[in-house]
Specification:
Helices cover 35% and strands 24% of the residues. It contains 10 helices and 16 strands. The structure holds nickel (II) ion (NI).
């Protein structure tokens, strides 16, 4: 059961949709044009139900099989949003919106799921219901969480969910997946260090927040090196240092540190949160300053259910013959995790070949991956819910 021939025929059309999305990138929940186009296409395919505005700007398209005797429902999910990056690909269909770009391939994901929806609506060679989920705001806005909060999974009685993401560095047409944790939990923190500002030539009259912050930044490195079990995965990165002074001769009153924490297990996540707070507050206190820590939990760990993962891998093997079933987990995060926390399912990588990494201004989705991605989505439905 290789790539479906129908997707070879549909490739120019699906590629056209992909390039149209690429030329018109939209951010976060502000995906009105994209969502409108998705809904319009799904209606033109003859989907049984197309509902817009789920989770603010998400779209759900329902396709019923030939019969529904067993009442099975599976969800197939794609993301629609772009990134605030200035495109440098030089392709003829490059972004027409300054400072916005489809640098994560969500244009490709949306187009591939549309292709599968078109095929499934015209063939209906399955017994059950397919719910195509097009979500906004994957890039930091929690659009997946909003769709779940909106009751999407219970409204359509979705029993399992499957998602896909392209991945540079993996050959086109190859898939990669693993059971268990696949993507990390991403938390963010802000540490506000308050001391006593003043003249840089009179440090004895000040409490120097820059020096205190430097100590905090260095001490935070001991969480990964000294606190967390070395066999566990953890990242603690301080990414911005911001002071209320722009002069070279003024000791700032306040310094803000912002950063991210990535973990793969709730126990480690709890431990790191506690240590970030203790280290920041204790170090500041020791040096005569005060630190206030704002720690915010973000996307949870993306956890693939073992049985659904084995099934998704089997389908990928049938489609392409190439699937790595023990790919290394990534410390990036993915808000499909909110759906996987509610329903069993799996998230799989599809190779994008030797391109720039996602989130790079020279990145581009490889259209030759489309037949593999669309086939995988369609085959997931047909294999999971075979027509009687
Ligand atoms: Ni992405």
């Amino acid at each position: 059961m290789p790539v479906k021939n129908r997707f070879a025929e549909l490739l120019p059309e699906i590629t056209g949709w992909r390039r149209d999305f690429h030329a018109h990138p939209e951010l976060l929940f502000d995906v009105h044009r994209t969502a409108g186009r998705v809904a319009e296409l799904c209606r033109s395919f003859g989907c049984d139900e197309v509902v817009e505005g789920i989770g603010r700007t998400g779209v759900v398209a329902v396709i019923k099989g030939r019969s529904d005797s067993k009442g099975r429902v599976i969800g197939l999910r794609a993301d629609m949003d772009a990134l605030p990056i200035k495109e440098q690909t030089g392709v003829p269909y490059a972004s027409t919106v300054p400072g916005k770009m489809h640098a994560c391939g969500h244009d490709g994901h949306t187009a591939m799921l549309l292709g599968a929806a078109k095929y499934l609506a015209e063939t209906r060679n399955f017994d059950g219901t397919v719910v195509c989920i097009f979500q906004p705001a994957e890039e930091g806005g929690g659009g997946g969480r909003e769709m779940v909060k909106d009751g999407m999974l219970s409204r359509w009685n979705v029993q399992e969910v499957y998602g896909m993401h392209n991945m540079p560095g993996i050959p086109v047409g190859h898939f990669a997946i693993r059971p268990g944790p696949m993507m990390a939990a991403a938390d963010q923190f802000e540490i506000v260090v308050t001391g006593k500002g003043g003249h840089a030539a009179k440090p004895h009259d000040c409490v120097d927040t820059t020096v205190v912050s430097a100590h905090i930044i260095v001490a935070l490195q001991t969480i990964a090196s000294r606190n967390v079990d070395p066999l566990k995965q953890v990242v603690v990165s301080v990414c911005t240092v911001e002071t209320d002074s722009t002069a070279h001769n003024v000791i700032p009153q306040v310094v803000k540190l912002k950063g991210t924490v990535r973990t793969m297990e709730p126990k480690v996540q709890d431990q790191v949160q506690e240590r970030v707070c203790q280290i920041a507050e204790g170090t500041a206190l020791a040096l005569g300053a005060h630190a206030e820590v704002h720690y915010q939990r973000g996307y949870p760990v993306t956890v693939n259910a073992p049985e659904n993962t084995a099934f998704a891998a089997e389908v990928a093997r049938n489609v392409s013959g190439h699937v790595d079933t023990d790919t290394a987990p990534l410390m990036g995060a993915e808000d499909f995790s909110f759906m996987l926390n509610e329903r069993p399912g799996a998230y799989i990588f599809l190779g994008n070949g030797d391109t720039a990494m996602v989130h790079h201004p020279a990145y581009n989705f490889d259209d030759s991956a489309i037949p593999f991605g669309s086939s995988w989505y369609a085959e997931m439905a047909e294999t999971r819910m075979p027509a009687a």
